[in-house]
Design goal:
- There is one protein chain.
- Strands 1, 2, 3, 4, 5, 6 and 7 form a 7-stranded mixed beta sheet that branches.
- The radius of gyration is 17 Å and the shape is elongated.
- The chain contains 6 helices and 7 strands, in the order E-H-E-H-E-E-H-E-E-H-E-H-H.
- The chain has one domain (2-186): Maf protein, CATH 3.90.950.
- It has 190 residues and is of the alpha/beta class.
Length: 190
């Protein structure tokens, strides 16, 4: 069985490597990641992870691959924060997260040979310190939060904003390792 990572995220590839897992192929899914009206964060993450896995399965054809996909969402209650496209969005996200507790939800989808789908969703609670305008501007200026859900990367400079974390750290980075390894082991992946 060949393992296909349906993601172009270098963080997900690095997290798998940290667990001793090397995908045989990396195939980006390139799907529409828009939030549907009224869609809750957990449902949104599960839908996108599933759509990514299915899109890559369709690209590859055949059913002799394990296809692993994931999607990470940062949420304040029922509100899904955007994946920051620019510095202004990073600042807006940080302003919302400042001094508050939020959830990071990563859904993992695995399509096994034969086409069966297995999913998991993991939630980690993160509390941010109150941030000054200078801190938010300095972080936005470093551009680390661009392209990241919620406008920050916990594995980088934003870690200094974290007052507390409850749950999986790797989940906040972008792939819950324990659950991902368990999904893979459950279908016989070495």
């Amino acid at each position: 069985m060949k393992l296909v990572l349906a993601s172009e995220s270098p963080r997900r590839k690095a997290l798998l490597a940290q667990a001793g897992i090397a995908p045989d192929l990396i195939v980006p899914a390139a799907i529409d990641e828009s939030v549907r009206k009224g869609e809750l964060p957990r449902i949104h993450a599960l839908r996108l992870a599933t759509e990514k896995a299915r899109a890559v399965a369709q690209k590859l054809g055949g059913d002799d691959h394990l296809i692993l996909a994931a999607d990470t969402v940062v949420a304040l209650g029922r509100r899904i924060l955007p994946k920051a496209e620019d510095d202004e969005t990073v600042r807006a996200c940080l302003k919302m997260l400042s001094g508050r507790r939020h959830q990071v939800i990563t859904a993992v989808a695995l399509i096994v040979p034969g086409g069966k789908l297995r999913t998991r969703a993991v939630t980690t609670r993160v509390s941010f310190s109150r941030l000054s305008p200078q801190q938010m501007n300095a972080y936005a200026d470093c551009r680390e939060g661009v392209g990241k859900a919620g406008g920050y990367a916990i594995q980088g400079r934003a870690e200094v904003f974290v007052k507390s974390i409850s749950g999986s750290y790797s989940n906040v980075v972008g792939l819950p390792l324990a659950e991902s390894a368990s999904l893979l082991a459950g279908c016989g992946y070495r």
